[in-house]
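Table S2 (text version). Query chain:
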Amino acid sequence: MEEQSPLFDICILCALPEEAEAVRNEFEDRCQQISFQPAFTKKRKYPYWHAIFKNLREEPLTVLVGTMPFTGPVETPIFVQAILDEFRPRFIAMTGICAGDRNRAIGDLVVASYAFHHDVGKIEGGKEEQDFLRPEWRTTGPQSRIIMYAQALTTWKRPLIEMKQRLLGRDLLLEEHPRCLIAPMASGMAVQGNYPFPRLQEHNRKVEFLDQEVAAFYRTLQELPEVPFQTADTPRLLSMDNNKPCILQTRKTGKRSKRNGNNFVSPF
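Corresponding structure-token output:
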């Protein structure tokens, strides 16, 4: 008989290896006697790391951390679907890096109210041989009650302040304290080394954050009717209803953007 894959309560997916390493280090620093062990998926032989720890109710939780082989919206649904099929997690997250507009700061927590691929549409010729994009955006987002949960969320503040103080090596000024922001998230095929927000805001005035994977992540999960659109508290782990998956996407501070790095949380 073929050996069955283990089931995990929580799966945390990353686009880059250094992002996954940061997640594992943060778990091990904050949770006593936690050590991630390497393993491989049964079906596709993807490498991943796993550990067991207890939540605030002293319940054991199994955690998987995995890294996508390639970044971007093409690879995201393939990888996410493979993880869901094999491990059937009750909670899935994605953590990494996103770019932020100039008026945002490292350490801000962002809830993506919805997401879309900003480079989808039709390219037409314009005046003076300047091509332009006529966008055709399809948006995907969480249920309204999830946004309400995020608006009431406060438990992220203390650990995020501690992380930022470690990064800066000093206490934070009052104006440097991280904020929770709720805004649309744009996704695209390419890493943006320029400053794309004025162009994006011509079509959506509220867009302040940009990445490559979040829209594809949302779209993949939208096609899975067996996965309810539910979430828990973050960044700490809340108790979860039995047999009801929770979906959460997060982005943590990074250097992909030349402008700003931001934390974002995009819950389903």
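Notes on Table S2: The first helix runs from residue 17 to 30. Residues 227-268 have pLDDT under 50 and may be disordered.
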